[in-house]
Amino acid sequence: xxxxxxxxxxxxxxxxxxxxxxxxxxxxxxxxxxxxxxxxxxxxxxxxxxxxxxxxxxxxxxxxxxxxxxxxxxxxxxxxxxxxxxxxxxxxxxxxxxxxxxxxxxxxxxxxxxxxxxxxxxxxxxxxxxxxxxxxxxxxxxxxxxxxxxxxxxxxxxxxxxxxxxxxxxxxxxxxxxxxxxxxxxxxxxxxxxxxxxxxxxxxxxxxxxxxxxxxxxxxxxxxxxxxxxxxxxxxxxxxxxxxxxxxxxxxxxxxxxxxxxxxxxxxxxxx
Length: 272
Prior knowledge:
With 272 residues, the protein is an all-alpha fold.
């Protein structure tokens, strides 16, 4: 078997560029690899050539999984960095395998009955190698997706005070609400002006909805109700329209943030 397998490997290495071009022509029009339709020849073909030139090291390795992990982890990183979807990256690899055998058949590498029997054994070895590749690539993609996800939500986790108990959140929220109440009293009762200070109200509203999801809307309701009551008490001569609009906006913003927070939580739970 070794002699015939070596012949297959030799042809794969010797004609790596030619096989890679046939592979590129396939992925360029294959409906299962739409990303590759826009990928230039200069970017795609070196990817296949590199794979074909590593074919021997994985095929002949005493510990094929360890070698596959080394080779195909690099392939996964390259595909991930180029933002190639995982199903397409794996299917493109499957096509690389297919074109090895298509080229071998075209070159009539295995002609006799014995050679064809050995070819079946070589094929089984190749399939095993690609099974390892699929596992390694999927695992590597998941690792990199997790790193990307963790990096993108790090700021949101900090805002959400993850790892902090509800007592600390409650104390901070109480302080923010007291501050909002004092601002409202100062500008409406003392200054007797309808100054737009209510933008600061969005801080406790957004935090409450991130922390407590839909229950955070109660904070928006409380602030809106307090704003309107304060206006009725201290600014009777001033039309109430503006503060009603602000109270409605509190509810709209809080609802949107709460829904986004619930969606993010559900997505994270599903991802985990």
